[in-house]
Design goal:
Elements: H1 4-14, E1 20-24, E2 37-38, E3 48-49, E4 53-56, E5 66-74, E6 88-92, E7 104-107, E8 111-116, E9 119-124, E10 134-135, E11 146-148, H2 159-164, E12 169-173, E13 177-182, E14 187-188, E15 199-200, H3 203-213, E16 217-220, H4 228-239, E17 244-248, H5 259-265, E18 269-272, E19 277-278, E20 284-288, E21 291-296, H6 300-318, E22 328-333, E23 337-338, E24 344-353, E25 359-363, H7 372-375, E26 380-384, E27 389-390, E28 395-400
Parallel strand pairs: 5-6, 13-16, 13-17, 14-15, 17-21, 19-24, 22-25
Antiparallel strand pairs: 1-12, 2-11, 3-10, 4-6, 4-7, 5-9, 8-9, 18-20, 20-21, 22-28, 23-27, 24-25, 24-26, 26-28
Helix pairs in contact: 1-6, 3-6, 4-5
Length: 401
């Protein structure tokens, strides 16, 4: 049994790198960048109005009300490209360029426009300070500045920035190909009705969804039975052309726990087979040919926790992400949690804010590592040291999942 920190380092050292590909920006969401994203121009590219109103000189309206002659209109995509003089105003729309000579914008609600003979005038009813309601050119980002770096994920939140700077296509890491199958005679497929002593295969679909959420393409293979020869055949078939193989079950020390034996017979290099971790002590990391193999426990909670710790790190590391550890944080504990005497414990928790704005970690009191119903509400893992106990009200380290 090796420490978790050592196990994570072993995984990190064995992560291969795939090539890159350029894809249309609309297809890049969920992918990891293989290039830095750099601004090809200032943003905004001109002094921009934040309001519908009038562009004026602040000194002209310092003693409001003040009357100015309207000399033009600046709209988004159709600016007024002349120099405005003292005593003049330009009607302006939200997002439009502020004309040269103007240094502030007063919103339309605080103005009154009217015609007098052939000229149109505006009465500015309240003064406006210099720079008010104007976003200055380059105030968001300057040309040549880096927005994102290789390894960052393209998301619905940041894709607009790529589009704004002309990235019609993005260079991204190729998706790792992941194969998944469960083991155990007691497992039946999701659409089947379990017989006596049987359960449905919930692990494979979960691991496929998790793999996809971190950028992989995942394929679920049929469940393998508790037979060494058939298990070896299934492994040989599943690793072909795949970067990662994930299996669940058959990793403990029981009569029908045959995964390590199958991998060893096939010539796999075993990195570790037991980790000082709860849940998830019996977990195998290996390499068979060019394929990384992770054999996770069969209990759903253990499978999920070991996926987050080990497999997720491999999937995103393959795609060029430099920091593969889970995102850390701290929270105030809602109820006491106790760590195992010989292993680092990761207790599932949901998160909420209390009336004072503190982040609260509420331990999910499941019925063991098979309680998938309880774990379904998990948003974080509380990190409890070996032989430690954390009391309600303590600030504890957490990892977001």
């Amino acid at each position: 049994m090796i420490p978790l920190k050592k196990a994570l380092k072993l995984v990190e050292r064995t992560i291969p790198r795939l090539g890159n590909e350029r894809v249309a920006l609309r297809d890049a969401v969920g992918r990891y960048l293989a290039e830095d994203i750099v601004a090809d121009g200032d943003q905004p590219p001109f002094d921009r109005s934040m309001m519908d109103g009038f562009a004026v000189v602040a000194a002209d309206v310092a003693n409001a009300p003040a009357t100015l002659r309207i000399v033009g209109e600046s709209a988004a995509g159709r600016g007024w490209h002349h120099e405005m003089k003292r005593g003049e105003a330009v009607r302006i729309m939200t997002g439009a360029p502020v004309p040269a000579g103007a240094d502030t914008v007063q919103r339309v609600e605080l103005t009154r426009s009217y015609f007098n003979d052939a000229n149109e005038f505006v009465e500015i009813l309240e003064s406006a300070k210099k720079g008010m309601s104007i976003v200055k050119k380059g105030s968001e980002i300057r040309r040549g500045k880096r927005l994102f770096v290789a390894g960052d994920k393209v998301t619905p939140q940041n894709i607009a920035a790529l589009a704004a700077f002309g990235y019609a296509k993005a260079l991204v890491a190729k998706r790792p190909r992941v194969a998944i199958f469960g083991t155990g005679t007691e497992i039946v497929e999701i659409g089947e009705k379990p017989g006596a002593d049987q359960i449905r295969n919930s692990n494979s679909i979960t691991l496929a969804a998790l793999s996809a959420s971190f950028g992989a393409t995942a394929e679920i293979f049929p469940n393998a039975k508790d037979d060494l020869a058939s298990l070896k055949r299934q492994i040989k078939s599943a690793v072909r052309g795949r970067n990662i193989l994930i299996t669940t079950g058959g990793v403990s020390v029981g009569k029908y726990d045959l995964t390590k034996a199958a991998l060893t017979d096939l010539g796999a290099e075993i990195f570790f087979e037991k980790v000082a971790l709860k849940p998830g002590k019996p977990v195998i990391a290996a390499r068979l040919g060019k394929t990384l193999v992770f054999s996770l426990p069969g209990n759903p909670v253990s499978a999920a926790v070991t996926f987050y710790l080990f497999v997720r790190a491999a999937i995103i590391g393959i795609q060029g992400v430099k920091t593969t550890s889970l995102r850390p944080g701290t929270a105030t504990l809602a109820a006491a949690v106790k760590g195992a005497s010989d292993r680092r414990t990761f207790a599932a928790a949901r998160l909420e804010n209390d009336t004072n704005g503190r982040l609260i970690a509420i331990p999910l009191r499941g019925k063991g590592s098979s309680d998938l119903v309880s774990f379904a509400r998990a948003e974080a893992l509380i990190d409890v040291g070996i032989g430690s106990r954390a009391e309600a009200g303590e600030i504890v380290p957490i990892f977001y999942i």
